[in-house]
């Protein structure tokens, strides 16, 4: 187990370097990194040249990348367009997005698995067909459309919630955005659970559990569910990274000042430091979440052994 | 004890080899699977291929028929939008802004006073073009790179797998924002290029594993042992096995690419006016959602139905092609 | 009689129509008796057993008639909750493939202990102790340590011993063993079968042994019921059958098995395949494959003729078959 973790950590290095380098190149090559530094107006050539030298922008890109990464590992993520430290932005943005992601995961776990179990056990019945069709629709409608429609209905028409989230982004105001963020994954979790339950329901060990004279409830919870949830848990684990990275759209619709908002601002203002900094953290979250999922797999399924 | 039997008895070979419960045998013994007359005589007709079997299943599947009809309709109106609308999506009259539906303008007008019906019809063209072209690009690039990794193995394979991991680690919408935010072109090509750039790893993974699985198949080994040439091996034996999973994933991906284009356009980095795109229209309509919800609802509906049609089509094709579910 | 199955009928609804998987089967087992049910796959022997246990998949399966009288009660008339209490406690089943029949993510100790906590309301601790005792009883070495292990960590023979331990846990009156040794290596088959026979004798249980292995049958069974296309074609004490079968299908089965006492004799296979159950041939279902078939076999379904007080054969020409 220990050796496996070490091997995986080593494997993560090239992926981490590749992903961050890719974003670094994209931002550098495609945009004008100095453009955002003079506020709203264009920099005059002299200032631009001075800034370029100051930030080391006249050096080759690979060296810039190394310098940047060196700084990152000492905790220096650079400065954002408004002169704030990027780490300060992160300190305000990440808690918000983490709250949002937590709510989304909660929806996936509670609603997704419940729907999946109900439909998996009643395959082919009206409930099943209805839920299945509904999940297809949810998967098909892009998140920004779902978000706008729910905002229109619940926020504007019926007035159940505040259409946009206040700056503190407390838990209760993030419930609807969390649902919107979760929606597509929620549908996947439902379908995955359903398939898994339906497949395992005909398995030999479930038949054995029935033949042992166990009550229906115990057969389902202890024998069927325990086995069927293994792929679902791994999906949800891997989803954490995607949710945090995909929160841009949701955060924009509900005006939430989280990671997605800061990234969006950083991109609009072509601020390399903000964008690369946030993406670096997101990629790390994604990689670590995937590692944790793989390790979790071994805990859930005793047949899996990592050498 | 008398001696144990080491071989399954001929008459009972089925029981020993299958080892299945009787229920499975009852279900398995349908004419398609084990063709035989009622008297247990030999097979009738020749065995069908995976493709003709799948096609037979699809023709009877209402989900497939409905989604295929929707897609056919979409393709037709993107080729000839003027067949069902006489207006131009760019002729707008500010004095009619946000007005509701009326004769000749069934969907009403948007914030710029453009006819929502005409814009929705023309929006299909963009979506279909982006979806089809991006999917083609992704499928070709992904298949070639994935198949190469599967064939060459070794260092090629590990490098490609790492590269794939890198692309998977970058959130798609984020990558789109970064890459496309500086593009000023108002054509569909940057968006398509971007989707191909970030989409190919998905297909390459599938193509790679399909090739590796196919290579290990006994009949491929046999063909190789019989001295079949490499190109013949690929074309006759390996490619047909890799094609089915790629087609299924590509069909579903087509739907998601359409959604992605709309999302990027909604965020302001995908297509830009004067391009006509459902994403642009939805984005433009969202500020006055309260006064003119129709300007938001029609393109949203069209987008949802389109994406849904492709995903359902992919689902149906997968069910038909997956022998495990038969 | 401990168990009496009377005129049991089970149908499956498939894409091609209704398959009569079990078509009027009757058999009985006394306490302490072993009944071997013989037949090819698809003959309905496992489906009958599943209907008796009450673990038939419904749908697609459906019990359309008959009675399953166990200790004086018709099980088919019991409510599901009462039926459940019979399962595992009064009658238990041993399945063919222990690897897939045991839950892969629960330790074998937990799976055994579950019998005691659920049916007997024991504490977890006591149940665990009983589980270890059971493992000892089926001669699994180092039972205490191995109780915490998972099914995949055991060998095939050991796993089947765990299945047997699970079935015997509550000392049921009847055990149904569905091809208990088919999935095992030949060298372990005999050990497992011997263990099962021994424990059955000790506890005085009735045993229904579903198998296609005639070698096993001769050794442990008291009676044989041969099934073909959902019906019983011959039912007799085991020695009578070995001496002279009263049905051409039984004869075919015996002829296709190598036997030490008939060295030098030619082995013969039964020609053809068993019928599709949605389209069973009219008359005697076996007639397309039968060497004795005549016109009457194509039109009249043979009843179970009484050959002797303890023996029946569903062949119009059972006399000829006996003399052959």
UniProtKB/TrEMBL annotation, chain A:
Its main location: membrane. It is found in: Cell membrane. It comes from the Bacteria. It is a multi-pass membrane protein. One of its GO terms (biological process) is transmembrane transport. Pfam families: BPD_transp_1, BPD_transp_1_N. Signal peptide: none annotated. Residues 94-297 form the ABC transmembrane type-1 domain. Belongs to the binding-protein-dependent transport system permease family. This is ABC transporter permease. The lineage of its organism: Bacteria, Bacillati, Actinomycetota, Actinomycetes, Kitasatosporales.
Automatic annotation (TrEMBL), chain B:
Pfam families: BPD_transp_1, OppC_N. Residues 9-23 have a biased composition (Low complexity). Its main location: membrane. Coiled coil: none annotated. The keyword Membrane applies. InterPro entries: BP-dependent_transpt_permease, MetI-like, MetI-like_sf, OppC_N. The keyword Transmembrane applies. Keywords: Cell membrane, Membrane, Transmembrane, Transmembrane helix, Transport. Residues 1-48 are annotated as: Disordered. GO terms for cellular component: plasma membrane. The chain crosses the membrane at residues 63-80, 128-151, 188-207, 238-260, 296-317. GO terms for biological process: transmembrane transport. Residues 26-36 have a biased composition (Basic and acidic residues). It is a multi-pass membrane protein. It is found in: Cell membrane. Residues 124-314 form the ABC transmembrane type-1 domain. Belongs to the binding-protein-dependent transport system permease family. This is Peptide ABC transporter permease. It comes from Streptomyces caelestis.
From TrEMBL, chain C:
It is a peripheral membrane protein. SMART domains: AAA. It holds the Pfam family oligo_HPY. Residues 3-254 form the ABC transporter domain. It is found in: Cell membrane. Keywords: ATP-binding, Cell membrane, Membrane, Nucleotide-binding, Transport. One of its GO terms (molecular function) is ATP binding. PANTHER family: DIPEPTIDE TRANSPORT ATP-BINDING PROTEIN DPPD, OLIGOPEPTIDE TRANSPORT ATP-BINDING PROTEIN APPD. Belongs to the ABC transporter superfamily. This is ABC transporter ATP-binding protein. It comes from Streptomyces heliomycini.
């Amino acid at each position: 187990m220990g050796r496996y973790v070490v091997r995986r950590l080593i494997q993560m290095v090239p992926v981490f370097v590749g992903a961050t380098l890719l974003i670094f190149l994209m931002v550098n090559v495609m945009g004008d990194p100095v453009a955002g530094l003079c506020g709203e107006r264009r920099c005059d050539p002299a200032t631009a040249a001075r800034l370029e030298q100051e930030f080391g922008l006249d050096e080759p890109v690979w060296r810039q990348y190394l310098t940047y990464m060196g700084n990152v590992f000492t905790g220096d993520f650079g400065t954002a367009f408004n002169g704030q430290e990027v780490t300060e932005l992160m300190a305000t943005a990440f808690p918000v997005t983490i709250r949002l992601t937590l709510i989304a995961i909660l929806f996936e776990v509670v609603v997704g698995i419940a729907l999946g179990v109900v439909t998996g056990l009643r395959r082919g019945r009206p409930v099943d067909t209805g839920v299945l069709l509904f999940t297809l629709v949810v998967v098909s409608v892009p998140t920004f459309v779902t978000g706008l429609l729910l905002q229109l209905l619940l926020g504007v028409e019926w007035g159940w919630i505040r259409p946009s989230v206040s700056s503190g982004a407390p838990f209760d105001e993030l419930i609807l955005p969390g649902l919107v963020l979760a929606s597509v994954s929620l549908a996947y979790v439902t379908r995955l659970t359903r398939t898994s339950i339906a497949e395992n329901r005909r398995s030999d060990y479930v038949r054995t559990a029935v033949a042992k004279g166990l009550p229906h409830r115990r057969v389902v919870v202890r024998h069927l569910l325990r086995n069927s949830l293994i792929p679902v848990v791994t999906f949800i684990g891997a989803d954490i990274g995607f949710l945090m990275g995909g929160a841009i759209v949701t955060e924009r619709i509900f005006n939430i000042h989280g990671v997605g908002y800061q990234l969006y601002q950083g991109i609009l203002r072509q601020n390399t430091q903000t964008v690369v900094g946030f993406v670096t953290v997101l990629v790390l979250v994604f990689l670590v979440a995937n590692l944790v999922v793989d390790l979790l797999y071994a805990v859930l399924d005793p047949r899996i052994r990592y050498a | 004890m008398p001696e144990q039997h080491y071989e399954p008895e001929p008459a009972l070979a089925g029981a020993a080899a299958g080892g299945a419960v009787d229920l499975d045998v009852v279900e398995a013994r349908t004419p398609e699977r084990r063709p035989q007359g009622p008297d247990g005589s030999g097979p009738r007709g020749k065995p069908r291929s995976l493709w003709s079997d799948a096609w037979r299943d699809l023709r009877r599947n209402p989900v497939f028929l409905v989604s295929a009809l929707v897609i056919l309709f979409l393709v037709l109106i993107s080729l000839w939008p003027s067949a069902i609308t006489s207006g131009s999506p760019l002729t707008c009259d500010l004095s009619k802004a946000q007005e509701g539906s009326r004769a000749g303008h069934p969907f009403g007008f948007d914030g710029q006073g453009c006819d929502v019906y005409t814009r929705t019809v023309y929006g299909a063209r963009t979506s279909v073009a982006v979806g089809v072209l991006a999917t083609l690009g992704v499928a070709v690039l992904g298949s070639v790179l994935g198949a190469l990794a599967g064939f060459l193995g070794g260092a090629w394979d590990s490098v490609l797998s790492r590269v794939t991991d890198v692309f998977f680690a970058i959130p798609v919408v984020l990558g789109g924002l970064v890459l496309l935010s500086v593009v000023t072109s108002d054509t569909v090509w940057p968006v398509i290029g971007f989707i191909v750039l970030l989409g190919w790893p998905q297909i390459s993974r599938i193509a790679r594993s399909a090739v590796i699985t196919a290579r290990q198949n006994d009949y491929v080994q046999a063909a190789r042992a019989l001295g079949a040439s490499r190109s013949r091996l690929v074309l006759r034996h390996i490619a047909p096995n890799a094609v089915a999973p790629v087609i299924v994933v590509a069909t579903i991906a087509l739907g998601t690419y359409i959604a992605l284009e709309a999302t990027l356009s909604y965020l302001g980095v995908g297509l830009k006016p004067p391009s006509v795109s459902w994403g642009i229209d939805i984005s433009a309509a969202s500020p006055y959602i309260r006064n003119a919800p129709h300007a938001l609802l029609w393109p949203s509906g069209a987008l949802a139905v389109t994406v849904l049609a492709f995903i359902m089509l992919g689902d149906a094709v997968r069910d038909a092609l997956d022998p495990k579910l038969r | 009689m401990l168990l009496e199955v009377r005129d049991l009928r089970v149908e499956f609804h498939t894409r091609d129509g209704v398959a009569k998987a079990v078509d009027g089967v009757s058999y009985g087992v006394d306490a302490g008796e072993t009944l071997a049910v013989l037949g090819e796959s698809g003959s309905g022997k496992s489906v009958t057993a599943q209907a008796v246990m009450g673990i038939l998949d419904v749908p697609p399966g459906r019990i359309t008639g008959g009675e399953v009288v166990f200790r004086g009660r018709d099980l088919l008339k019991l409510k599901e909750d009462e039926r459940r209490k019979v399962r595992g406690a009064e009658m238990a089943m041993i399945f063919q493939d222990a690897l897939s029949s045991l839950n892969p993510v629960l330790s074998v100790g937990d799976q055994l202990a579950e019998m005691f906590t659920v049916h007997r309301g024991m504490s977890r601790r006591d149940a665990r102790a009983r589980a270890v005792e059971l493992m000892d009883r089926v001669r699994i070495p180092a039972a205490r340590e191995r109780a915490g292990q998972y099914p995949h960590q055991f060998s095939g023979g050991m796993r089947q011993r765990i299945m047997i331990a699970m079935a015997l846990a509550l000392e049921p009156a009847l055990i149904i063993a569905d091809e208990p040794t088919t999935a095992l290596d030949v060298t372990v088959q005999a050990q497992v079968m011997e263990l099962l026979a021994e424990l059955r004798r000790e506890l005085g249980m009735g045993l229904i042994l579903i198998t296609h292995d005639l070698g096993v049958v001769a050794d442990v069974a008291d009676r044989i019921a041969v099934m073909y296309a959902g019906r019983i074609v011959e039912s007799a004490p085991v020695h009578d059958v070995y001496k002279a079968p009263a049905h051409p299908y039984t004869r075919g089965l015996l002829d296709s098995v190598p036997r030490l006492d008939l060295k030098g004799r030619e082995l013969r296979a039964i020609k053809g395949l068993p019928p599709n159950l949605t389209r069973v041939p009219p008359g005697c279902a076996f007639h397309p494959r039968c060497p004795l078939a005549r016109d009457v076999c194509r039109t009249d379904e043979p009843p179970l003729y009484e050959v002797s007080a303890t023996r029946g054969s569903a062949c119009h020409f059972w006399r000829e078959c006996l003399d052959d």
